[in-house]
Amino acid sequence: MLWNEFKKPKDIEKILSALTKYDKEIRIMEICGTHTVSIAKSGIKGILPKNIKLISGPGCPVCVTPTERIDDILFLSKNKDVLIATYGDMIRVTGSIDGTSLEKRKAEGFDIRVVYSPLDAVKIAQCCKDKEVVFIGIGFETTAPSTAIAIERAINEGVNNFSVFSLHKMVEPVLRKLINMNDFNIDGFLCPGNVAVIIGEEGFRFLEIEFKIPSVICGFEAGDIIYSIYRLIQMRENKDFKLENEYIRAVKQKGNEIARNIMNKYFEPCDDIWRGIGWIENSGLKLKDEYIQYDAVKKFNLDLNPYKNNDFCSCGEVIKGKIDPRECKLFSTVCTIENPKGPCMVSSEGACAAAYKYSD
Amino acid sequence: MCLAVPLKVIQINGKDAVGESLGIRRDIRIDFIKDVNLGDYVIVHAGFAIEKIEEEAALENLRLIKEVADALE
Ligand code: SF4
Ligand code: SF4
What would be one Pfam family of this protein (chain A) (predicted)? Predict the structure, then answer.
């Protein structure tokens, strides 16, 4: 199969061997959970010399959701009229009180359902008319359009017992935030291919124009990643700082307009909080005022927790790429895949889970 | 949430479709894709196809990688 060739493209060994000869320190950040997993699984980290540092950034939507919002969801889940529908990765994330999670709530008898697509949540609402179904909308620009489709379906079919708790976020604002931090020390970005499918090459152009940081929009196979890392190094060596698109088989210059239009029809930017980072202006997506009746926060008059940032774990530092998962005191001793303490270990796309499962 | 593997579209029914990879079938939605045909390959994210990938572009993609490798000799 043609697509499989990207796992090990012809002559990739040549690029790999050039990489192993590179001896300067370079820090490359990936901003997508699937990249994190692919890098760990393929063993790329182990093959590359230690001076090529691959760092996971705020790329996993589960990880970047702060404890305060998990607490809000847990609070809502105790409402007897409410049925929470969520992607599977969310159910084991713990709130500020150790041991609380949606999984635990389910065990306590509250109605929590795992869904594979937001449309499944609408279907549940159509069957369980006596329940208020709340879909936990999580993810970057890649998943927000699907949540919008679910809202549209609910409107068209007159499903009034359906709403969305939107935790959707956007990639550009958090990248800007990271870059503007005083201790920012990343030399190049591997940009998330799936987000780029939606927002297009243009969505990442600011990295080149405003910041002159070498960046490559990258696919998810080992070959894609090795090639892209090599290009980042070349750009740096040649002082040719630009944005490139490696994932041309999927990412168009302007992205997927149909998906963006539907997202923009229902959502608008709002200030939002990120784990370990705090408030970032216009970094989240909330439902527009016209669709307020589908906004769970408004519907249930939720008094959202203010940002406290008193997490006991180091997930925030991991998300910002300031520490490696192994540098967290809890890593693999207290915090394991079997008994995760932080979201970065819970999420299958989290940096800690990847480091734990595929330890090199 | 994401599948990095492209699925082959083997059934279409309005905006609903079935995608397949290595014998595993999944119900998918094709709301975001213009003109999907049976046999097309799509990238799927949370149950939604987010883009169609075309053979020609994939070959071009491989050429891109090969070019850089070739320059290394
Ligand atoms: S949800 Fe998909 S695009 Fe977003 S971080 Fe995860 S793998 Fe990457
Ligand atoms: S090891 Fe556990 S507690 Fe530490 S940063 Fe990772 S997920 Fe958080």
Answer: HypD
Nearest to A285 by CA among A303, A297, A275, A299: A297
CA A331 to ligand 2 centroid distance, Å: 6
Interface residue of A19, A115, A146 to substitute, partner B, most B CBs within 10 Å: A146
Residue A258 has its nearest CB partner, among B34, B64, B65, at B34
What's the total number of domains in chain A?
A: 2
- Considering the domain architecture, whether residues A279 and A321 belong to the same structural domain is answered as no
Our CA-based measurement puts residue B48 at a distance from the nearest CA of chain A, in whole angstroms, of 7
Count of domains for chain B = 1
Distance B6 CA to ligand 2 centre (A): 32
At A360 the pLDDT is 54
* Per-residue burial over A176-193, b = 16 or more CB atoms within 10 Å of its CB, e = otherwise: bbbeeeeeeebbbbbbbb
Determine whether the interchain pair A230/B68 forms a contact, defined as Cβ–Cβ distance below 8 Å.
yes
Q: How far apart are CA B71 and CA A190, in angstroms?
A: 22
* A165, A297 contact by CB (below 8 A): yes
Model confidence pLDDT, tens digit, residues A244-281:
999 999 999 999 999 999 999 999 999 999 999 999 99
Is A254 part of a structural domain of the chain?
A: yes
Same domain, A138 and A212: yes
